[in-house]
Design goal:
The chain is an alpha/beta fold. The chain has 2 domains: 3-163, no CATH class; 173-284, no CATH class. Helix content is 47%, strand content 11%. Strands 1-6-7-5-4-3-2 form a 7-stranded mixed beta sheet, with helices on one face. β4, α2 and β5 form a beta-alpha-beta unit. The chain is globular, with a radius of gyration of 19 Å.
Length: 287
């Protein structure tokens, strides 16, 4: 399929990188929902002149998965995406992701780029949420990640869809990515040291973050920034509770000025000591 036949997608895209997936730890994480445990009807349609070049679509109750890939892969993604939808709703409520979520599975790197996939980090990018709320999965997601890892990636991306943040350049990146990471890793029950290994190494070496990462850090050191954002959001949930944290994110989404102090009753600077103590405790205890 020629590149020009794909609709142009403009605006900000949000992506998750392969190093966020924790392939090895996730392989033994039995607490993650198993896709086979949930039932949902699926229908399959196909278009194209030959089976080799046909774009196949698998339609489930909550998800539509399409791509020029084997039907078995689309069914696999559909099952994983159903788990991810349920995980997102556990945090953000049943009113999100209403209607069928659109997930596209790229057949190769060029197809990933045509569909709107972010290729700035090369082969590290596992998935992208486009400005029109389509989730595009890269081939690396199937060659380098376990089934449980795919659910984590899909949950991360579907959090962006649920919160409609893919094209929100006015929201700090730590909120966008931290909220998605928190939602994605929460069902796994992985400890902070396992979910954020680079952050854990920094803390053990005495390089303890004092607050959330800046937007500039996401550009200069994305791996560290993702993990620091996750650590900061995990701390906020630990300190104030999940419902207060989600209320804060929704207030930011709604454009409320000064939402952090209004919701949490403190400034981020005043939490530096507590945050550092939280990180040390979680990492020293291997949690």
């Amino acid at each position: 399929m020629k590149e020009s036949t794909w609709p142009a997608r403009r605006g900000r895209v949000v992506c998750v990188l392969c190093w966020v997936l924790l392939v090895v730890p996730l392989a033994g994480c039995s607490s993650v929902s198993q896709s086979g445990s949930r039932s949902a009807s699926q229908s399959v349609s196909q278009s194209g002149s030959t089976a080799a070049s046909a774009v196949t679509t698998v339609r489930g109750a909550d998800v539509v998965v399409s791509g020029d890939v084997p039907q078995s892969r689309l069914r696999e993604v559909s099952r994983d995406a159903r788990d991810a939808v349920a995980d997102v709703r556990q945090v953000w409520g049943d009113s999100v992701l209403v209607g069928r979520v659109q997930v596209e599975v790229a057949s190769d790197a060029a197809d990933f780029r045509r569909r709107g996939g972010n290729t700035e980090a090369g082969g590290q990018v596992a998935a992208t949420t486009t400005a029109d709320d389509h989730v595009v999965l890269a081939p690396a997601l199937f060659s380098r990640v376990t089934q449980q890892g795919r659910v984590v990636v899909l949950t991360h991306e579907l959090t962006h869809v649920a919160l409609h943040q893919a094209d929100r350049s006015d929201i700090s990146r730590w909120i966008v990515e931290g909220a998605a990471e928190l939602t994605a890793y929460r069902p796994t029950r992985l400890g902070l040291a396992s979910a954020a290994p680079q952050l854990a190494r920094a803390v053990r070496a005495g390089r303890v973050p004092t607050g959330p990462p800046s937007d500039a850090r996401f550009r200069s050191a994305p791996e560290a920034a993702y993990q620091e954002a996750y650590g900061w959001c995990a701390f906020l949930v630990h300190r104030f509770g999940l419902s207060t944290f989600t209320h804060f994110v929704r207030e930011v989404d709604g454009g409320r000025s000064g939402a952090f102090r209004a919701v949490f009753g403190v400034t981020s600077d005043s939490l530096q000591g507590e945050f550092a103590a939280f990180l040390r405790q979680q990492i020293d205890n291997g949690e």
